Amino acid sequence: MNKVYESDQVTVTVLKEGYCTLEEDGSFHADGTITLVETSQCKVLVDTGGPWDRQYLINALTKAGVGVDDISHVIGTHGHSDHIGNLNLFPGATHIVGWDICCGDLYTSHSFSEGNPYQISSELVVMPTPGHTHSDVSLVVKDGPKVVVIAGDLFESEADLSDPSLWRDCSEDPPSQEKNRTLVLKMADIIVPGHGPPFHVKESHRHSKPDL
User: Fold this and answer.
1) Torsional class of 26: left (φ above 0), alpha (ψ -120 to 50), beta (otherwise)
2) Distance, CA of 47 to CA of 142 (rounded, Å)
3) Alpha helices in 16-164 (DSSP H)
4) 58, 86 in Cβ contact below 8 A?
5) pTM metric for this prediction
6) Per residue in 77-90, pLDDT tens?
7) What is the DSSP letter of 91?
8) Are strands 19-22 and 28-31 parallel, antiparallel or unpaired?
9) Starting from the edge strand earliest in sequence, which strands make up the sheet with 124-128, in order?
C-alpha cells in the first residue's frame, strides 16, 4: 500500500501496484494497479485488479479503514480482465467502466465519445482517454494547483516514456493514445499508470498545463 498524495481535501492510495513481466515464450504475467481515492464527499476505487485479487482487495480496503460498502464509485479505466475482475464486490456503487455508467441495472448516458468529462465531485473528474482501447477513461484528481491522474493503461509505466513500444504494441488506436498521453503529461503532477509505480511528471515532459 502506497499513499501517493494526501491533503486535507483528498487522499490517493495505491492499494496494489500493477505489473507486467514477459516470459521467454512471449506470454506474460500482468495485473492492473488498484487505487483508492478518498474525499470528504466520496470514496472511489479505480480499477479492481483481476479476479485472483478478490481477497487481497478486501484485505487492503480493510487495512485502509474502508469497507466494500463504503465505496461510492468504482471506475474501470477499461474492460480488460486485470482491471475489472472484482466489480461484483461493489453492487451498491456507481460503476463507470470505460464509457458505461450504471448504478445497479440502471444505465445513464454521457457524451464521453464527444470528449466530454464526467464530474463526480469538485475534486474528481473522469475524462475520456481512448487509445489503449477505444473507450478508456482516466480519473483526474484536482486539489488546488495539484493534479494527480490515475490513468490506467494510457501509461503502462514510467518506462514507456522512453520506450514507446511498451504502450504502442498493445494500443488499439495509437494516434488517439499519443494525443491523450500528451494531454495528461501537460496536465498532471503525478501519474498512476496501469502496470507500474506512480511517478512525478518532469517539466521536460510538458510545456504548459491545460485547464480541464
Assistant:
1) left
2) 19
3) 54-63
4) no
5) 0.94
6) 999 999 999 999 99
7) T
8) antiparallel
9) 118-119, 124-128, 137-143, 146-152, 190-193, 199-200
Half-sphere exposure of residue 128, counting CA atoms within 13 Å on the CB side? 16
Residues in the chain: 212
Spatial contact of 44 and 66, defined as CB atoms under 8 Å apart: no
Closest CA to 154 of 97, 195, 100, 113: 195
> For 11-67, what is each residue's pLDDT tens digit?
999 999 999 998 888 788 999 999 999 999 999 999 999 999 999 999 999 999 999
Q: If you ran DSSP here, which 8-state letter would residue 84 be given?
A: S
Question: Helix H segments across the chain?
Answer: 54-63, 165-168, 174-187
